[in-house]
Design goal:
Elements lengths: L16 H20 L7 H5 L11 E2 L11 H4 L14 H5 L9 E6 L5 E4 H5 L5 E8 L4 E11 H8 L7 E6 L19 E5 H4 L5 E6 L2 E2 L9 E3 L12 E7 L6 H5 L23 E4 L6 E2 L7 H4 L13
Parallel strand pairs: 1-4, 2-11, 5-12
Antiparallel strand pairs: 2-3, 4-5, 5-8, 6-7, 6-11, 8-9, 8-10, 12-13
Length: 317
């Protein structure tokens, strides 16, 4: 076999960085699937038996996603995007112990009639926790099915009484480099911020999650409280929230500020709009080998498509 010397190599001979990273992520995903079991995906009853953390009491079962096969607990808790805890998929679980989710306070600010700083228990106590099985589709091309535990964001927003001028909701993650080693790197403009239009935030699907698999939310999955917006790419579902602010103008978001060509404000799952560096037409469900077609709005079009009637979803990506 002919082996090129370093001085003979051309740039065209070098594997592009993004292809290398995506290959490494595929290998990681395959390993996670094997660790989760030979079948990869499991039934809801099997998944609920796998948990390892403190149980959440009085969780109401709902009809959301009951026909889905769930991604194994071990995969959900060891294959994560959480850049505050590291950029590799296994970094969050390895570094999770550095995050201290108690005590925790969430500040609700801006255009609301009843602003305040709410200790975590006071924030959550008024609401009936529900289990909702949602699909999560990540922009890199992989997906999971997770039984989240939480309550609708719209219930909290109604409690603080949005003012008529409020049109958007801005969310902010904890800024604490001693707890989040990833924040010591300039990979993003910290703290992490995200945003929704007010009607998106008030949609019945939009969840504030405090657990999964019937248990308290693990650190690597965004403890103690995170957003879950199932029809959008996963990076919109901001983790470890410390501030919710209602505003009149569209807020800047972390990935939009970092790479505006690749990550727009809306970030709806849309197989017709490719990422600049790869197609979004198909996805690989963790636990499965073959890819499946990506569903528009991640399959939740019946519940959310009307919010975007008349919008050019290629322009507002």
């Amino acid at each position: 076999m002919f082996i090129k010397r370093a001085q003979d190599l051309r740039w065209s001979d070098v594997t592009p960085r993004e292809h290398y990273l995506r290959r490494r992520e595929f290998i990681q995903a395959a390993a996670v699937a094997v660790a989760g079991g030979v079948a990869g995906l499991i039934s809801p009853s099997e998944a609920r038996a796998q948990g390892k953390g403190p149980k959440l009491p009085n969780v109401k079962k709902t009809e959301w996603g009951q026909a889905e096969m769930l991604t194994p607990y071990d995969a959900v808790t060891t294959y994560n995007n959480f850049y505050e805890l590291g950029i590799d998929k296994d970094d969050p679980s390895r570094n999770a112990s550095s995050l201290k989710p108690r005590p925790w306070t969430v500040s609700i600010e801006g255009l609301v009639g009843k602003p305040g700083k709410f200790p975590f228990d006071d924030l959550v106590k008024p609401y009936q926790l529900e289990e909702r099985i949602y699909r999560l589709r990540c922009v890199e091309g992989w997906s999971m099915v997770i039984p989240w535990i939480g309550f609708p964001l719209r219930d909290l927003l109604a409690r603080v009484e949005p003012m008529p001028k409020a049109r958007f909701v801005e969310f902010t993650t904890l800024l604490a480099p001693t707890q989040f080693p990833g924040q010591q790197s300039p990979v993003l403009d910290w703290p992490y911020t995200e945003g929704l239009r007010l009607d998106e935030a008030m949609n019945p699907l939009t969840l504030l999650a405090v657990g999964l698999y019937g248990e308290v939310l693990p650190n690597q999955n965004g403890a103690p409280i995170r957003l879950v917006v199932p029809w959008k790419y996963g990076f919109k579902s901001i983790k470890s929230i410390v501030r919710i602010r209602l505003v009149e103008r569209q807020p800047s978001t972390a990935w939009e500020k970092s790479q505006p060509r690749e990550y727009g404000f809306y970030s709806n799952v849309n197989p017709e709009v490719d990422h600049p560096r790869w197609s979004q037409a198909k996805e690989r469900r963790i636990g499965e080998f073959l890819k499946r077609p990506t569903l528009k709005f991640n399959g939740y079009g019946d519940q959310v498509a009307s919010m975007y009637a008349g919008m050019d979803l290629r322009k507002y990506y």
